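ok here's Protein Smg homolog, seq below lol
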Amino acid sequence: MIQIAAFLMARFPNVQACPMGMELGEMLEQVGFDENEIGKTLLFLQLLEEHEYAITQAINPQPHSMRIYHPDELKYLSDDVLDFLQFLQKEHLIQTGQREFIIYALMYLPEDDITLDVAKTLALLVLWAHNIEVPVFIQDELNVLLPRPNLMQ
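and the structure came out like this:
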């Protein structure tokens, strides 16, 4: 999925310029991406579109508020994933609604598919979808994850 995210971000300035649904799926198949990874990416983009209002309208918590995780979230989301999301929010790279969307989307996956790399990919897709410039240090991490660096050119 990280390869598809990099491919989309390199070819489209934002999610509004990207084809959706079947058209996007066919384009990704023609490029040669894995069908399973295409399906996950299309699901996340669909979820992002369906929940756009909730994501952008979420009220930011008070400075000393605390996010309490549901036991299922704690069961499936590793400490690395939770720490990463906390870091992104602490650094003001994502807002509360964006964090909640990433958690929501991760919980759609089978337990074995919930990894830090997938969380990073979702964060990148959210930033791209909201026309937020991806910070250089996150772009560097993305480049490290990619087995085919030419996708970012």
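fwiw The chain has nine helices and no strands. kinda neat tbh
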